[in-house]
Amino acid sequence: MDTNTILVLSTCFASFFTFQIIFHIVSYWFSAKISPGFNNLNFKKKIEWNSRVVSTCHSLVVGVVGLYIFLFDEAGIADPLWGDTSLGKVNIAIASGYLISDLLILIWYWKVIGDKYFVMHHCTALYAYHFVLKDGVLVYIGNFRLLAELSSPFVNQRWFFEALKYPKFSKANVINGILMTAVFFIVRIASIPPFYSYMYSVFGTEAYVRLGFLIQFSWTATCVVLDVMNVMWMIKISKGCIKIISLLRQEKARKSLQNGKLD
């Protein structure tokens, strides 16, 4: 077993156990410290809360590292298909460890947080990442896809506010909702056209042919599956955002009317 394989496997295992510890131990202690309302949640809410704490931790790590690789990794920028970088593989290994950990939690607490779309998402991503880690290809592309995780902290924060019964029109809730919609659109939707444009531009090139049919097909198929889900989630988020804006306008109009009557 070569050094690179040992690094990847050890990182993946370390990631898995770290996120399990955060879910089962750290989140309970930390959440109770920073949010007194956590202790008032029922068992089911606490399970999902801890799951989302783990999700946020994972997203911040792989999202920030992925952004660094996207902007500054010379090997990947020079050759997105075959550019090899240890940091890129480590980041993919961290993400893989998290996905396996979260799958285990989803299955164990299926009646509480089970979601077939999350299972589909995790399995699709793991299938794609195993090529990156095993064959050392598309490392830069894989890390580019991880930029989508930068939206997860805002999605999770929205759920935290809801669990703590924050008013929908509170300043914190509204600001987070706007940021969630904007960041989700930028990293998951706006990135779709240039991504597939690049995929089309390398089609048939020598570097692309060297990938082999299985990796070529898997690259396209997994990205299409994930992006279809991203579009579905974006539609859902957009509907929620439009609903909140509409309610805010109604509330503003109602207050203006009341003020007018008082005058």
TrEMBL record:
Origin: domain of life: Eukaryota
InterPro entries linked: TLC-dom, TLCD
SMART domains: TLC
GO cellular component: endoplasmic reticulum; membrane
UniProt keyword list: Membrane, Transmembrane, Transmembrane helix
Keyword Membrane: yes
Membrane topology: Multi-pass membrane protein
GO process terms (BP): lipid homeostasis
Cell location: Membrane
Transmembrane segments: 6-32, 53-72, 92-110, 174-196, 208-229
Domain TLC residues, every copy: 44-246
PANTHER family, per database record: CT120 PROTEIN, TLC DOMAIN-CONTAINING PROTEIN 4
Protein name: TLC domain-containing protein
